[in-house]
Specification:
heterotrimer, A mainly alpha, B mainly alpha, C mainly alpha, B: mainly alpha, C: mainly alpha, about 0% strand
Chain lengths: ~170, ~350, ~475
């Protein structure tokens, strides 16, 4: 009961906050709602006993990425931004598609059957601590994807440097 | 005594509920104790700072209010409370109100995971170290938002400088602590202290000298203190991000900054200087020490924290401010690579079984 | 803690690729002539192709599989990479974007494609896709001072990110249902637990189909392609029109035929309308294009529609004809783009279709080559494109999809109009102005390779088809 209440709260707030993020006219306010949104997502992770992910969510998303967002947003011309329309003209089409998708997925979710349960039960993770369990899996079973992820980050860094730093017309 | 309270409560609401209520009450008491204690420390940290710097500059510092000027912090506090609360006409009001609260709250929240002595932390969580880093990065929002919302160019520049500075040095700080995490094998602050006690030197500062150096430098940048106080550089930015704040809202920034210093000092103490413990060899040489009750050890903890605080003051009195590009160069081209080297070393040595 | 060393032989080509890409990044600092980097990457491709042949096996706990299917696709990626590197240096100099990172990024993109082709686990598949996509976004925006290039990169990035999100949504559903991300385990679970008619599985397959359709630029998820193809540097347009598309087909084939192989009737319902729409919209919109890069973009959309037929057929013959067609398509498409690049000189874009007027008189060789590629793209014998289409359509008919093949042939006939219009302009019109061709030994070599491949495969198609069929047997 208490658990469902918590989950309901987080899920509801995540939806409301996401809406606030995309509908605010002032981009700085959007970022602030997004900050709150990230906290609720972290809360959802905590609720799933994934404390490490929750902490990382706050450190990386709230603490680093969103600050960079803010940094860029602060440099925008606020007056110009405020004069823009928040809702694109083609919203009815988008609304139709999203509503159709929502109905389809909701209807399909009724057919959900529980898949097999893995060896990492909540008790197993609690006794090992989430950080250790995650670290061990990342460096053994999921070593290969983990290494690819590092390459993706490398490409992202190189790409950012190429697109932003290189002097034009060498 | 606690058990009698529990059974008394249990007669009304049942056993599990009673336990829960009692737990909450105990946590609230702990919170109150920690916050009051910290605020008193902060008040006297300002006094102490003025005294230390005064003496370094061959002055006397505050001495008129109370004996040796000891009541000076309270006089300052009263003054700040009664000042007019000015809100600039151009300010984005909700954010202007919110910014100091975010800044101060993030500083106070960090206190909840610090182990002041064995078994005493408001919340002894498994990812304590990450929690501290998360909260310290949130403080940046308070600064950036205050700089933006005030609608003043000085504030804005201060906010921008702070944002880039804090996120740059956050990386270095986080990486510098990875060595400690590797050695202790845990992110729980209490576990880190216990692991240090069982380590031959008793301090991680000795094997982790590189990490400690990086942490030490990043600490100054994270708290916006000299020599990295560019966000509030008085001579250029007229106090930077909090230029437009006055009265109690200003006081929140002020308190937040000193709380931040205390927290950074505490992280340094917990991760590198052995927290509330003395090294094992000292304890073995002086066996009577282990007879002492737990809470006495907060003295050791505070003594180590004061060492850091003193260093903050000392550096402020000694070093000039860096230029902005120098600051960024130090962060990205010196500290982060050094911290990474440290991570590689620590990991290798751990696998070879030397740590 | 004991460290178990995984078997590295199957991933050796990828490891070498990673190493070379990183070395190129660092060598960029000291090497002043950037063409040297291109040359180095060509040499590494030779080494990797050699390693590919001996790389069969499964490793990393079944996450990575190197079989005939993946090896064939990797050979296409290698050809794609080599041809792109050959046609690039001159263009980069002309556009003044001659940065060394270009080569490293193309290598990283190819690495991502190789990982996709070999992915036996959705996580690896997704990460490979991101690696490929991220590198390609950067490459598309490589002409920083050009607004169109920026537009290309932004559009590609936004829609690509959208596709990734949809892919992850589908993955989460399938993980919730089956508790695994391994493609073979998913297949086993679906058959053993009777999930075949589960609506949630259907939704998940729709999401996969949508995400992969974005990557292969199938209608209605093709919107990004014309703008991205037009704005990107032309060698990268050539690269993008073959590599990511082939990689998209590689994962499409593997996910739908391995993981969802038992529920083929369900997913062919999703793919058939996509295929028909793709052929229709691609060919019809290509008719009205005046920019050759946009026209080739719509043509590549249409070709994705043809190739979907082979996947829908789902038989070994169908898959092998997709492989075969992809291989041919790589040569004829990059060949056409090489001609487009030659027309580009400083101060003259040469991207308008009317720029080809009278090319047959001013530059007969270039015009003749363009004629070969256009014939091949249309599917006129004896060019390779005809043989590719022939096998593709045959396999679909044999699998019982005759009506789709009729539709495909119809649209194929429509496509003749815009391909042959170029030929008509080149030979029937008088030149408006004298166009300088921007040739280089690299482009010459690339053209020689592509044109001989197109003609040789057209005349002797059995060799490649046999290879493709052999590749599918181990699938």
């Amino acid at each position: 009961m208490l658990q469902q209440l918590f989950f309901g709260y987080y899920a509801f707030m995540i939806i409301i906050l996401s809406l606030l993020v995309v509908t605010r006219g002032n981009p700085v306010h959007s970022v602030m709602w997004m900050l709150l949104l990230f906290f609720h997502i972290a809360g959802l992770y905590l609720f799933l006993n994934a404390e490490f992910i929750a902490a990382i969510q706050v450190i990386v998303y709230a603490g680093a990425i969103l600050v960079l967002f803010l940094f860029v947003v602060l440099l925008l011309n606020l007056r110009e931004e405020l004069s823009l329309r928040q809702i694109a003209g083609s919203w009815p089409a988008a609304f139709f598609i999203v509503a159709a998708l929502f109905i389809t997925v909701t209807a399909a979710l009724g057919a959900y059957v529980q898949g097999p349960v893995g060896s990492y039960s909540i008790e197993a993770i609690r006794s090992e601590t989430h950080t250790k369990a995650l670290g061990r899996l990342l460096y053994t079973e999921y070593l290969f994807p983990f290494e690819i992820a590092s390459l993706i980050l490398l490409v992202a860094v190189v790409g950012a440097v190429v697109l932003a730093k290189r002097k034009l017309r060498s | 005594m606690i058990s009698s309270v529990t059974s008394f409560l249990a007669s009304f609401v049942g056993e599990p509920m009673a336990d829960m209520i009692l737990n909450i009450v105990i946590i609230l008491i702990k919170v109150a104790v920690v916050i009051v204690g910290t605020l008193l420390h902060v008040a006297y940290a300002t006094y102490w700072e003025r005294k230390v710097i005064g003496h370094m500059q061959l002055r006397l510092g505050p001495r008129e209010v109370g004996p040796f000027g000891l009541l000076q912090p309270f006089a300052d506090g009263v003054k700040l409370f009664f000042k007019e609360d000015i809100i600039p006409a151009d300010a984005d009001k909700p954010i202007f109100y919110l910014a100091p609260v975010i800044f101060f709250t993030s500083a106070l929240t960090s206190l909840s995971v610090l182990p002041f002595f064995d078994g005493f932390a408001v919340a002894n969580i498994n990812v304590g170290l990450l929690f501290l880093l998360a909260m310290s990065s949130l403080g940046a929002y308070g600064i950036v938002m205050s700089g933006w919302s005030a609608g003043s160019k000085y504030s804005f520049l201060g906010g921008l400088r702070s944002a880039s500075q804090v996120i740059s040095y956050e990386i270095a700080m986080g990486l510098s602590l990875v060595g400690v995490m590797i050695m202790a094998g845990s992110l729980n602050l209490t576990e880190i202290v216990r692991a240090q006690y069982n380590y031959p030197t008793g301090f991680y500062a000795i094997p982790q000298i590189l990490g400690f150096f990086v942490f030490f430098v990043a600490m100054f940048a994270e708290t916006n203190r000299l020599p990295f106080d560019l966000p509030e550089a008085e001579s250029e930015l007229v106090a930077g991000y909090f230029t437009e704040y006055s009265g109690f809202r200003f006081a929140m920034f002020f308190l937040g900054e000193y709380t931040g210093m205390l927290i950074m000092s505490s992280i340094g103490t917990v991760c590198f200087l052995g927290g509330w413990t003395l090294p094992k060899f000292v304890m073995e040489a002086l066996p009577f020490l282990s007879e002492l009750p737990n809470f006495v050890w907060i003295v050791v903890f505070l003594a180590k924290v004061y060492v850091f605080m003193f260093l903050f003051y000392w550096v402020r009195a000694t070093l000039p401010r860096y230029r902005y590009d120098q600051l960024m160069n130090i962060g990205w081209k010196l500290l982060i690579p050094l911290a990474l080297v440290n991570v590689v070393f620590s990991g290798t040595l751990k696998i070879m079984g030397w740590f | 803690m004991p460290i178990a060393m995984p078997n590295l032989i199957p991933v050796m080509p990828e490891l070498v690729m990673t190493g070379v890409a990183i070395i190129l990044l660092m060598a960029e600092l000291v090497i002043k002539r950037k063409e040297t980097l291109g040359f180095l990457s060509l040499i590494s491709v030779g080494l990797i192709s050699y390693l590919l042949l001996g790389s069969a096996g499964t490793t990393f706990g079944g996450m990575f599989v190197s079989d005939g299917y993946s090896t064939f696709f990797k050979l296409i990626f290698m050809a794609n990479l080599v041809l792109t590197v050959l046609i690039s240096p001159k263009y980069l100099q002309t556009m003044r974007i001659n940065f060394g990172e270009y080569y490293a990024l193309t290598l990283f993109a190819t690495l991502g494609m190789m990982l996709m082709a070999s992915a036996a686990d959705i996580i690896v598949l997704y990460l490979g896709l991101e690696l490929m996509a991220l590198s390609t976004y950067v490459l598309a925006g490589f002409i920083r001072y050009d607004m169109k290039s920026n537009e290309a990169a932004i559009k590609y990035l936004l829609l690509g990110a959208f596709a990734s999100a949809i892919l992850l949504y589908g993955t989460s559903l399938i993980y919730g249902l089956t508790g695994t991300t391994n493609l073979r385990d998913i297949a086993v679970y679906i058959t053993h637990n009777g999930l075949a008619k589960n609506p949630l599985l259907m939704v998940s397959m729709i999401f996969f189909a949508v995400a992969f359709s974005f990557k292969i630029a199938a209608v209605p998820f093709h919107m990004w392609a014309p703008d991205a193809y037009e704005g990107a540097p032309t060698p990268i347009t050539a690269f993008m029109s073959v590599g990511p598309k082939a990689a998209g087909f590689a994962v499409l084939g593997r996910v739908f035929l391995v993981a969802f192989g038992s529920v083929k009737t369900d997913w062919s319902v999703i793919l058939i309308p996509i295929a028909v729409l793709t052929m229709a919209i691609g060919n019809i919109l290509a008719l009205s294009q005046t920019n050759i890069k946009r026209m080739l973009a719509y043509s590549s959309i249409a070709h994705a529609g043809y190739m979907l037929l082979g996947i829908i057929a789902g038989t070994p013959a169908g898959i092998s004809s997709v492989l075969n067609y992809m291989f041919i398509y790589a040569f004829m498409n990059i060949g056409a783009f090489a001609i487009v690049i030659m027309l580009r000189t400083e101060g003259f874009a040469g991207e308008d279709i009317s720029d080809y007027e009278g090319l047959g008189k001013t530059h007969p060789t270039a015009a003749a080559l363009m004629l070969v590629f256009m014939f091949s793209l249309t599917g006129i014998p004896p060019m390779a494109g005809f043989m590719g289409k022939f096998y593709l359509f045959m396999s679909a008919i044999n699998a019982g999809y005759t009506w789709i093949v009729i539709v495909a042939v119809l649209f194929s006939a429509i496509s003749a109009y815009f391909y042959l219009r170029i030929v008509m302009l080149m030979y029937m019109k008088e030149p408006k102005e004298v166009i300088q061709l921007n040739t280089s030994p690299g482009i010459g070599l690339a053209l020689a390779v592509t044109v001989s491949a197109v003609i040789l495969i057209g005349i002797l198609p059995a060799k490649v088809l046999a290879l493709a069929q052999q590749a599918v047997t181990s699938f």
